[in-house]
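Re: your question from the hallway

Yes, I did run it. Sequences:
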Amino acid sequence: MRCEEIRSLLDAHLDHELAEELNRRLERHLLRCAACSYEARTLEQTRSMLREAVPIEVPSPSFRERASARLLDALPELHPTSGRTAARQWALPFSREDS
Amino acid sequence: MPTAPIETHHESPYEKRLVARLQAGESEALSALFDLHVDRVFAFARHLLGSREDAEEIVTEAFLRAFQRATAFRGDCPFRGWLFGITRNLCLDRLRQPRLMLLEPEAMERHTDHGQGAAQMETSLVVRQALAQLSEEHRLVLTLCDVEEWDAHEVAAILEKSLPATKSLLYRARRALRTELTTLWDEDEEETHDAL
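Structure:
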């Protein structure tokens, strides 16, 4: 395999997307070719450093609770036939007679 | 702003049933849909906006709008696609507003909590600095694919690109980040050398 071809496969190799035989050939090339090996290693290091620097983002439990409550509170307005709507109309600034 | 749904994946029969139950006004369906999608929508908004507070605000609003649309829509509706489409548009609107780019203290605390030493923390700061230099598209594809490890098909749908175009973008983004990192460390070494 030529270096150019190897370089085009490095990302797929990094993502474990290469077929077994192709992967074996690529790894054999990396053992022999310092330039391609450097290219592969720096790509892997970059991704590894990125993963250490940027955390996986998860919503906090308090946000989940607040957002969930807000959305549930909005349900009667989303769905006017819901039983909670009638009670809520008293809180609106304009009564039905005004309109 | 009209939002075209994003074809993020084929909705499962379970999700479809939840949407139908939401349309019938069931609060349990609303909670289940929220629980099903909140992690990914939050991660998407958080990485795009760079601020936890902004992401929380946008995610709540996006769910609200997607629920409004789902209840108003009769029949089979692409809820998840709407949700991501609305989230993306709200994030882009927010990004157009002038704001300060700050590294959140909370992010720093989390790093400390994870037991990173001073050297590791310095490396992390440089990586985040390098990431911030990249285009928004490069930053997003890197964080979704390489940090969050989402399926490339889903990232392609969110970015509204084909799978090959998304992979090509990811590969370019990895190299762009490597170049930025190399530049930053080269500058750092030059400064250290000059100081000696």
